[in-house]
Amino acid sequence: MTISPTEVATSMAVGPHAQPALSEVASQLMHPASRVILFYDGQCGLCQKSVQFVLKRQPQGSIFFAPLQGTTAAEMLPAVDREQLDSMVVAKNGQLFRHSTAALVIAKELGGFWNMLGHLGSLIPRPLRDLVYRAVARNRYRMFGKVDACRLPQPGERARFLD
User: Phi and psi (nearest 5°) for 63?
Assistant: First the structure.
């Protein structure tokens, strides 16, 4: 069965701490289950550095990348994620993760030391983690600048970048 990304729709969150989940169609697009998409602000210097950090530590990995300003984000994410640009978003196993939780999901995907660090970070209460995350996010352009262009992916990396 072929599923077009344009058929993707997000569902409503349920419960006080629930993250909006991807629709069943979006979940099918994500197969294999180990596929993870990191949505990032394509104009943010810190976000660009984060993508490079992940690529260096997982050169043949399962993490894919898409800018929040791109087509894939428009088809898979709620408008609020694409308009506010205040958090990276990670799609994994039919769920969306934001703020510090998204960073911890990525750390765990990197394995080894980063996996351990991700699990340790999960022990810190989410409101406290997100307070720090949001403080950095608010100042990221001032601290790391805006970028008009980013490094072109190497031939082996190109398949991991979605528009």
Answer: -90, 125
